[in-house]
Amino acid sequence: MTELPDWVRPLHSALDDKLGLELLELAPERAVGRLPVEGNTQPLGLWHGGASAVLAETLGSMAALAHARTLDRVAVGVDLNVTHHRAVRSGWVTGTATALRLGSTTAMYEVALTDDAGQRIGSARLTCAVVAPR
What we know:
By secondary structure, the chain is α+β, with helices and mostly antiparallel strands. Helix content is about 20%, strand content about 40%. The radius of gyration is 14 Å and the shape is globular.
């Protein structure tokens, strides 16, 4: 595991805190993080699909921001899709965002979501626009 860059330490949201997000690795090409299943379930006690979306978007967006910073720009999400493969009832869900494209105007990531046994529980794709800061 690589150490997180200093610039990312103050960047977190109330939603990250509420869901218990842990960012483990961050670079333009790859980001890794995880969320606990406990506290992030739907009424049947299963991992909530919305938590998958939050984890995927956060990891892809942070990696895209790391890329955009090399261009003196920022990144904003414009498209997210998530496919759910299997249920999870306990433990952690880990997301690994891997760059598919790092361009001057877009950054695209595939995000693999896995359970504690390493089984894929979901797949996501996030596209971010790389834009001038406001």
